[in-house]
Write a structure and sequence with these properties.
With 595 residues, the protein is an alpha+beta fold. The protein has helices at 10-21, 25-38, 67-73, 100-106, 156-160, 165-182, 205-213, 262-271, 311-331, 381-386, 395-398, 435-453, 471-486, 512-525, 534-546, 556-566, 587-594; strands at 43-49, 55-60, 109-115, 122-128, 131-138, 143-149, 187-192, 195-200, 221-227, 232-238, 250-254, 257-259, 284-289, 295-296, 307-308, 414-417, 421-425, 429-434, 458-468, 490-493, 497-504, 582-586. It is built from 17 helices and 22 strands. It has an 8-stranded mixed sheet. α1 packs across α4 (100-106), α2 runs parallel beside α6 (165-182) and α8 (262-271) runs parallel beside α9 (311-331).
Length: 595
């Protein structure tokens, strides 16, 4: 039998490895930013075009690389971080495997300029598809600049699976946040298509969080700190009143490395139990310092999952710490601006002892039924009878022995069940409809039609509404603005705020904050609202946010209108989220259940 096993060519092996490490533009951003931090930089710049699909460039002022080092840096498993296997259990740097640059170079065009302080000239290295195109001297400041162009150019199938620019930008911003929050001592700037999204000066952690998530977040944070033999923990948790539906404010850092840990997240969620509204998430920025030998960070290619040696104790410590801090917050008195100052003790009576109860005087001779001069006695018979003068009751209706008659001539075709379902009759039985899912379908089709035909009218608000946004939300909102305008929202951006002057007729101004929170939360969750287009996505989000909720009491007219509107839709069986809208109960099935 002929031999069938052979070694893969290096460029093919690199493309396979890239599939594990580089999943989307955000993966490249993460690896390049971490390399810049390992290079002891004080200022790191991130520049992207088309959400990273066209260009990702990271420029730092770190130690740079020699001509030999820059060439070796793009070879697989070439690293300066580890020498022996035991080094894996005492890591303090971000990268260590030597896979990232090799994987990036296998699926993109890469141009690198780097210079150490000792070198007079910089080195320029160009690589495409793992092949070195050129290496020559260049002029550049101390540090390193790596530009990654045309990501996945040689793997079109992978490129086609990338999401919309808004979704990919959101992932890039998430990675930027994770690196920038962990290193407040480093200045970061971030540009998208030539526009500045973030300019984060070096400072302390609290200021870094405020610069990223808007300044008002500072008043929403509760500091936490706990030092134990297992770990040192410090950071901030978000007050329950300011919790959001999205997970955009949940950050765990272990030895300044961002991690994902459902186990530790459950510890925090347990501490918040009973304090959050349904569907809302706790917010936290927690920094754990542990012995590097007590964790294993080499269990996942992206290094965001960590195995802890003493996981159970860490769970208990975090839960107790968060619960204690929340308790302290709840105990702090707050200013009551609605207090009536008229109820305060007058100043002249401050610090004076009470003089006893006030005296009570009683007129023992007072008789309320006694006639007095000049006052007419209103209790005589004639005066009471005068109250009924002019009121003539027909004999047919005044007969006390006649039974009460009910008007049963009107029989509605619909009725509401449990304030959640609408029941209506069919020729063959009953139809039971979920009111929220039905309304979602009606709104979804109306808004989608409005976006495509641009025929939804807007009503002007008497007083414009303002909603404050974070930098990342502003970047995402600019992509949604045109479609929101098509469904009746008249908005403009001004000083990190959305100014809303008009809304569709179905929306009232009390729903605006919740609606825009749902838009951004859905963008971060992505999976529940997977859509074919942005118009489809916007229509789904608005329909979900504005739809009738379970527990809403509807009038007979509203119930009938919802039934009629549903059966006027193109699709009547499923909601926009593929949930069944109604079930039917035919006469035969009903009779079988009663037998």
């Amino acid at each position: 039998m002929a031999d069938i096993i052979s070694l893969l060519p290096d460029h093919v092996a690199n493309q396979i490895a890239a599939g594990e490490v580089i999943q989307r533009p955000a993966s490249v951003v993460k690896e390049l930013l971490e390399n810049a931090i390992d290079a002891k930089s004080s200022h790191v710049q991130l520049l992207i075009k088309d959400s990273g699909k066209t260009l990702i460039q990271v420029i730092d002022d770190g130690i740079g690389m020699s001509p030999t080092d820059i060439r070796l840096a793009f070879e697989r498993h070439a690293t300066s971080k580890i020498k022996i296997a035991e080094d894996l259990f005492s890591l303090t740097s971000k990268g260590f495997r030597g896979e990232a640059l090799a994987s990036i170079a296998a699926i993109a065009h890469v141009e690198t300029h780097t210079r150490t302080e000792a070198d007079e000239m910089a080195t320029c290295l160009k690589i495409a598809g793992s092949k070195v195109e050129s290496q020559e001297l260049s002029v550049a400041p101390k540090g390193t600049s790596i530009a990654v162009k045309n990501l996945f150019y040689n793997i079109p199938a992978r490129r086609n699976f990338l999401k919309s620019d808004n979704v990919e930008l959101r992932h890039v911003i998430d990675e930027f946040h994770r690196v920038a929050i962990a290193h407040p001592e480093i200045k970061f700037t971030f540009y998208q298509n030539g526009s500045e999204l973030f300019n984060l000066p070096a400072g302390i952690i609290r200021k870094r969080i405020a610069n990223i998530f808007a300044n008002k977040i500072e008043e929403k944070l509760i500091p936490v700190e706990e030092m134990t033999s297992v770990a040192g923990i410090e950071g901030f948790i978000v007050k329950p009143d300011f919790a959001k539906k999205s997970r955009g404010q949940q950050f765990f850092f272990v030895n300044n490395r961002f991690i994902k840990s459902p186990f530790l997240h459950h510890a925090i969620s347990s501490a918040y139990q009973g304090l959050l509204r349904d569907g809302y998430q706790p917010g936290y920025f927690l920094f754990l310092q542990v012995d590097p030998k007590s964790i294993d960070i080499n269990i996942h290619p992206t290094k965001t999952e960590i195995k802890f040696e003493d996981e159970q104790n860490l769970f208990a410590i975090i839960k107790s710490m968060v619960k204690h801090s929340l308790g302290m917050f709840q105990a702090v008195p707050t200013l009551d601006f609605d207090r009536d100052p008229g109820l305060d003790t007058p100043y002249i009576f401050h610090n004076k002892d009470p003089q006893g109860p006030p005296p009570i005087e009683i007129d023992s001779s007072f008789n309320p039924f006694q006639k007095k001069a000049g006052v007419k006695n209103m209790l005589n018979k004639e005066s009471w009878e005068s109250l009924y003068s002019g009121l003539e009751i027909p004999e047919s209706e005044s007969d006390s022995n006649e039974e009460l008659k009910l008007d049963i001539t009107y029989s509605p075709k619909v009725f509401q069940l449990f304030n959640k379902y609408i029941v209506t009759s069919l020729r063959s039985g009953l139809l039971i409809m979920d009111q929220q899912r039905a309304h979602q379908r009606v709104l979804y089709e109306a808004f989608l039609k409005g976006i495509t035909q641009r025929d939804i009218l807007s009503q002007q608000l008497l007083f414009p509404r303002e909603i404050e946004l974070t930098h990342s939300q502003i970047a995402l909102f600019e992509g949604y603005q045109e479609n929101l305008h098509s469904v009746g929202f008249v908005t403009q951006l001004s000083n990190n705020k959305i100014v809303i002057t008009g809304v569709p007729a179905i929306c009232n101004d009390k729903q605006l904050n919740q609606l825009f929170e749902d838009v951004f939360a859905s963008t971060e969750q992505e999976t529940p609202l997977e859509s074919f287009s942005q118009a489809d996505f916007i229509s789904k989000v608005i329909a979900k946010s504005l739809s009738i909720k379970p527990g809403k009491d509807l009038s007979i007219a509203e119930q009938q209108a919802l039934v009629d509107d549903l059966f006027a839709c193109k699709e009547t069986l499923l909601s926009p989220f593929d949930r069944q809208i109604f079930v039917t109960l035919d006469k035969e099935e009903l009779e079988n259940k009663l037998n």
